[in-house]
Amino acid sequence: MSLDKNTVKKLANLARLDLPDDELDHLAGELSNIMTFVEQLGQVNTDGVAPMTSVAHMNLPRRADEVTDGGYPERVLANAPEAMDGFYLVPKVVE
Amino acid sequence: MGYVIQGETGDWELVIGLEVHAQVTSKSKLFSGAATSFGAEPNTEVSLVDAAMPGMLPVINAFCVEQAIRTGLGLKAKINKTSVFARKNYFYADLPQGYQISQYDQPIVGEGTIILDMKDGSTRTIGIERLHLEQDAGKSLHDQHPSKSFIDLNRAGTALMEIVSKPDIRSPEEAAAYVTKLRTILRYLGTCDGNMAEGSMRCDVNVSVRKAGEPYRTRAEIKNVNSIRFMFQAIEYEARRQIDIYEEGGEVVQETRLFDANKGETRSMRSKENAHDYRYFPDPDLLPLVLSDEEIAAVQNSLPELPDEKKERFMRDYQLSSYDAGVLVADQESAHFFETVAKGRDPKLAANWVMGDFFGALNRLGKEISNTPVTAANLGALIDLISDNTLSGRLAKEVFELMVETGKAPDAIVEERGLRQVTDTGAIEKSIAEVLAANPDKVAEYRSGKDKLFGFFVGQVMKATAGKANPALVNEILKKQLG
Amino acid sequence: MSELTNLTIAEARAKLAKGEISAVELTEAHILAMEAARDLNAFVTETPEIAMERASEADVALKKGEAGILAGIPLGIKDLFCTEGVRTTASSKILCNFIPPYESTVSSNLKKAGAVMLGKTSLDEFAMGSSNMTSAFGPVISPWKRKSNSNVQLVPGGSSGGSASAVSARIAMGATGTDTGGSIRQPASFCGIVGLKPTYGRCSRWGVVAFASSLDQAGPMTRSVKDAALMLQAMAGHDPKDSTSANVPLPDFAAAMTGDIRGLKVGIPREYRPDGLSPEIQKLWDDGIEMLKAAGAAPVEISLPHTKYALATYYIVAPAECSSNLARYDGVRYGMRVEGKTLDELYAKTRAEGFGREVRRRILIGTYVLSAGYYDAYYTKAQKVRALIAEDFRKAYETVDVILTPTCPSAAFGLGETDDDPVTMWLNDVFTVPASLAGLPGISLPTGLSSEGLPLGLQLLGRPFDEETVLRVAGVLESAADFKATPTGVEI
């Protein structure tokens, strides 16, 4: 499967990666090669096979409904590039 | 004939589906141990998991699972014994992980139904498509600063149940009835407090229109309509908007719109890419959720009597009308209050007093059953005083007002104020005789045909007895004495 | 200095227990070694003060007789494990200034066992790579040199290249690594050390910067199999904070190394011997088979028919998961931020600048294979093939107890010797990836040298949660191979 520059641009947008134009060209080629490589899976007969999403063969463990966490805003905000009055700050979003 | 909107080219039908996000009542969040309370200082109820720090992992809250099962059973829905959590990937400031843990093609609850109680006493059954568990997002404040938005993650990670109806709703009234009923059921179950103003229950409304007999047309989604009144307005506006587009030869675009409460309009959401590609895939940090028959049965056995069942029982056991029963069961506490009052008493009298004077007083004072000045026991005692003739209906109302003011029991009030009604025939005869003796000219006028003066005499007797004379006896004896 | 730094963990423990050496001297020697070998660029952050603190605490504990199993042992901690109060970067610009307010479960376990942290070792950025050339802090150099040309800088392998280089160069006695597609085993092979990837779920992932959640697994990198067993003992264990952490009992891994493998069946998969397998690797493998035969085990030819699809499967699944796992790196709550006029601009600029090329490439692949219209063809398909690969192993283990394969198709290559084609680089993982997809335990140990005098490793794979058998067989193989070579690129 060949990916064109436009597709790469859309993917970069979905992934929030601001890539320069020349890199998009280069990536289109690279990604196309990669996709060609992985497409060999089409040769495998997987009829009736259930997709495996986890190698861990157990049921989802559950925890009790107790408050055991949180309550430490200093830790949560400690690495914030920009914070004020206990909030994280980002450029204003207009809906 | 159902609800239609008249357009230039004919009648249009409304097709509505509702997606309700209900915050699960629980102490801690769905996948983190941070607290879920409302109104805390920013980022104080945020764990490292909620803040999506590197290396953090989700662990599911058993009680939230139970609450979802409980809600599913309350909606008479299919409980899926195996369900899968999936990541819904997108970027937004209030979504720290860059994805929301939700459920996609294998939700915990499948199809169910809700019965709507319409105002005219009829019922309508609306299908439920599914219910799934998912994380709530944090909150962004856009109005605190000229160029910055403020992010508070306290709400991020709180458990939500997304309840999706089938597109069976056909009018704004039905939509309102659906939301009301759903809220009642959730409150009965204790799985969500249904507080729309605080945001613990949010509605997204999917609206489309069509001519009768047509398949479904394109729908628009109206987000975060946070009151029933606004939902009404939003639906009406949006339906009209779509009809106008079609009648002008245009096409309705599938998109997400916001309801502007100030203008009473819906408008397109500019910033959101309307063609989202959420790239759902099963969350590799979580294994499939597997429920046992035992745990489902345990929840089933723990269910309270639900509104529909309670309503039927009230109609049956208390001979109440569908409407009256419906009003009483709309709230679990009201229903319980009523039953306490009605126990061993005339249910019709109990219903009238509860729904009339009692609810009226609560409304007037802005109180609820939880902080009522009049207890169910006391209201019941008041009714007993009417039934045993201690009080006339009129006197009872006076006593009731005093009960509301003072919070005291009716017996105490009757004693203190001497409000016992007079049923002593002799005393009444004496009063009547006095009144007649004091008004000979009026007596003569009455006897010569002025029937209307009867009321005057009744009034005078009531005045003379400070309102305590039994009205029926007064009427009887007065008739006799006047001839 | 070299006397102390040449000890294995087991030897050092014995000396510490007897009081022949102190933890402080042992750590001092390693701190000096770390400083002397800075050219290797194996560390992102050195933590000598913390190391000395922990060494002193270890000495106190040793005197009291309350020492943990790794008391006083100087280790490198891969910079993918969040360490409280100590910068953790995942070798990425985007986390260059991140100081976690928490400690990963695995590194915390090591701390509780009394281990000393020398510093945070370098890795391929976000654990994506097989050479440690993609670290934002510069490539790591292997302490090994080719016989023919000692001027060529060789890669240590990756992604746990810093750990491998440090252990091999005798800077650290052991180091933690993580293995997603081979990131412990392959660098161990390149650097002539032992690297163990436990069964998926054996070690907690809490606090480990996530790359591919269904594949990532922490494990020890050491200079002997016994050391790996000891380190695993301290690292492993059920963690309720990780929903994929296995709630199974922890056996005594070192005790499992009885030295007796008579009657064990060793599977030799025919698919790991493709045309074009270098004769050197062929010989290494055959020699290994003979060694195990001599010890009483029986080689059994087996077939793992879907082996050749493992790389393609991996390079769909891992990027898919990583594209989602790395979405949280957005400049809002921690890490590097590049300002933007709008929120989306902030995201896009931060991430484009913060992530390196390999990471960006994998995020894009992952985004693509999960996107609407392609999900079934790629992601679902890959997860089905993955199920088949796991089934291949399960069937094989009906007739054999362990599987023996080469770890890598070649010895370490030079820093400038690769072309730009990502797929070529990925081929380094061809023997390690299948076991990752199946979640099986695997170990690499050095058993021979290439014609250039570079280490070559053999890999043993076991049944789920059967690290004991893997370690037992590895111990026997290690004795038989008697690998004594040491790197010539540093002073040992």
Describe the structure.
The complex is a heterotrimer of chains A (95), B (483) and C (492). With 95 residues, chain A is an alpha+beta fold. Chain A has a domain at 5-38. Helix content of chain A is 35%, strand content 9%. Chain A has helices spanning 5-14, 21-38, 73-77, and strands at 62-63, 83-84, 87-91. In chain A, strands 2-3 form a two-stranded antiparallel ribbon. In chain A, strand 2 (83-84) and strand 3 form a beta hairpin. Chain A is flat and about 55 Å long. Chain A starts with a helix and ends with a strand. The mean pLDDT of chain A is 92. With 483 residues, chain B is an alpha+beta fold. Chain B has three domains: 4-298, no CATH class; 305-417, no CATH class; 425-482, Arc Repressor Mutant, subunit A (Orthogonal Bundle). Chain B has helices at residues 62-74, 172-189, 228-247, 293-302, 307-317, 322-329, 332-342, 347-365, 376-387, 393-406, 410-417, 425-438, 440-447, 453-464, 471-482, and strands spanning 4-7, 10-23, 60-61, 82-83, 86-89, 99-102, 112-117, 123-135, 139-141, 148-152, 159-165, 201-211, 220-225, 256-260, 265-268, 281-282, 289-290. In chain B, strands 1, 2, 7, 8, 11, 12, 13, 14 and 15 form a nine-stranded mixed sheet that branches. In chain B, helix 7 runs parallel beside helix 9 and helix 9 (376-387) runs antiparallel to helix 10 (393-406). The radius of gyration of chain B is 30 Å and the shape is elongated. The mean pLDDT of chain B is 92. Helix content of chain C is 37%, strand content 13%. The mean pLDDT of chain C is 96. Chain C starts with a helix and ends in an 11-residue tail after the last helix. Chain C has helices at residues 2-5, 9-18, 23-36, 48-64, 105-112, 161-168, 185-191, 225-235, 279-294, 310-325, 343-354, 357-370, 376-396, 422-426, 433-438, 467-481; strands spanning 43-46, 74-78, 116-121, 174-179, 194-197, 217-222, 265-269, 298-302, 402-406, 442-449, 455-462. Chain C has 492 residues and is of the alpha/beta class. In chain C, strand 10 (442-449) and strand 11 form a beta hairpin. The longest helix of chain C has 21 residues, at 376-396. An eleven-stranded mixed sheet of chain C has the order 1-3-2-4-6-5-10-11-9-7-8, sandwiched between helices. The chains are: A alpha+beta (95), B alpha+beta (483), C alpha/beta (492). Chains in contact: A-B, A-C, B-C. Chains A and C meet through helix 1, helix 2 and strand 3 of A and helix 10, helix 11, helix 12 and helix 13 of C. Strand 1 (62-63) of chain A pairs parallel with strand 3 of chain B, so a sheet runs across the interface.
